[in-house]
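User: Good morning. I'm curious how flavin-adenine dinucleotide would be positioned relative to this chain. Could you predict the structure with it bound?
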Amino acid sequence: MTVLAITEHRRGELRDVSLELVSAGRELADELGGDLALAVIGGDVDAFADELNRDGVDTIYTVDEGEEFNHGVYTQAIEQLHDELDPTALLMPNSVNGLDYAPAVAQSLDIPLVTDVIGLEGDETVEVTREQYGGKVETTYDIDADQYALTVRPAEWPTAEADGDAAIEAFDADIDEDALGTTVNGFEEVGGGDVDISEADVLVSVGRGIEEEENLPLVEELADALDATLSSSRPIVDNGWLPANRQVGQSGKVVTPDVYIAIGISGAVQHVAGMKGSDTIVAINTDPNAPIYDIADYGIVDDLFEVVPELIEEFGGEAP
Ligand code: FAD
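Assistant: Good morning! Here's the predicted structure, ligand included:
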């Protein structure tokens, strides 16, 4: 039995979810009594293969095809690897890219797909857990199929750290250029630069309590004073005050910083789904009954316009 996990990289860097897939894949392979194979597709695959060579990985397949992510290349390469390896489980990241190709791959291979998986238990069959209704309930699915595909939620498994001694093999995918569907002409970051809030150690996150766009410099100043990254709840992005890549939550990014400071954020389930894995959560909110306090480690029940300037000064900044 083989578990095949598809890794992910972006702009020359391996994404954390790839090493989390090693942990999830190894866990499932142990329960099923099988091997763990990884695939890395795109440019610089040999360097990524070295980075992916962690304890528990049996084989790493490199598919040297193009520099940037291309839906058609990934779909064709994964289908061909699947035909070759005949894996029981196909694991993919529940990321923007993963969700782009996973349904197409599953459909083409005619295997069931469960997305956004947060728990795995294997025996004769496999049980997978996922959240529904914005995290209000967890549902367990018993997959009764010989072969299946799963997308694994980022930040649910630890990153695999220990060095390994996997075999590294080049896989020669036969890509049909005419069937790609899209051509990648280049890569341009959307507004917000190349900030990746999911990689930040400290996040200062702002919500509707900030009231107006003109007040944003206040929280930006706190982020500067703390050497932190600015993120937000969805209304701030919906209002166009910050770009979409700053949004934390169910329809934004999942973050796991050391410290998450929620300022004027109520703690709706859709927001909490994206930040509950933070090590230490600090909330600043005037409403003592705000749900954010249910998960906060420290809370300041007070007006953010009073508290934040004091914090800025405390940390050596200057309030605007
Ligand atoms: P509010 O809920 O309005 O809270 C503002 C808070 O600020 C209040 O608790 C208030 O007490 C406090 N406050 C007000 N003034 C002050 C002050 N002066 N000082 C201190 N505190 C103050 N939301 C996300 O964030 N991310 C998502 O990915 C996301 N995805 C969604 C997906 C779906 C399908 C749906 C239906 C919703 C989604 N939402 C998401 C929206 C979510 O339901 C909430 O509406 C949103 O999180 C609320 O944002 P907020 O906490 O900033 O605003």
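The mean pLDDT is 93. The domain at 202-315 is CATH 3.40.50.1220 (Rossmann fold).
Let me know if you'd like a different ligand tried.
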